[in-house]
Amino acid sequence: MNISNDGSGGVDYVTYFTKQFPKDLAAMASLRDELEKRQGALTAVDDANQLRKDAEVIKAKAIAEAESATAAAKQYLADAKAKNEDVNARLADVVAKESELAREKAAYEANRAVDEKSLAERLKAAATKEAQLAAREDAVAKAEAKLKADQESLDARIKAFQAKVAALSA
């Protein structure tokens, strides 16, 4: 094609539109597609860079949250250890008190057994003394009855003697 128009006649539009134009149009369409691809590739790089920046921000937030969670977990662990130590100390105290209570109970049971045995012996001795007292009371009652009978007999003899003395003196 002649662009300078240096005397060669004019442009044959029919030939151009029938033969050359479809080729030029196809080449322009292919250039347009390639340009779109290249522009897409350039925006893909920008998009990838933006995604990297976003990923760095997210990573920084995740690290901060992980550090915060780790600190909280360490605090929870420290609290749990402290409470565990407190519970273990209380448990040791309870176990010591329980063993002391068991010793005191055993001593109480032993003392109670001794006291019960002593009480049984004292009750037995009291029963024996009571039986002895009952026997003495019976003996005293018999002695009183005999004394009364002897007194009455003596009184009767005295009256008889006084009656004889009165009969003799009269």
Sequence stretches where pLDDT stays below 50 over 5 or more residues: none
Strand fraction: under 5%
Distance between the first and last residues' Cα: 214 Å
Q: Report Rg.
A: 68 Å
Largest sheet: none
Structural class, from helix and strand content? mainly alpha
Order of helices and strands: H
The percent range for helix content is over 70%
**What sort of overall outline do the alpha carbons produce when their principal axes are compared?**
rod-shaped
Q: List the total number of helices.
A: 1
Average pLDDT, all residues: 88
Secondary structure tally: strands? 0
Describe this structure in words.
The model has no long low-confidence stretch (mean pLDDT 88). This protein starts with 12 loop residues before the first helix and ends with a helix. It is rod-shaped, with a radius of gyration of 68 Å. It has one helix spanning 13-169. It has 1 helix and no strands. By secondary structure, the protein is an all-alpha fold.
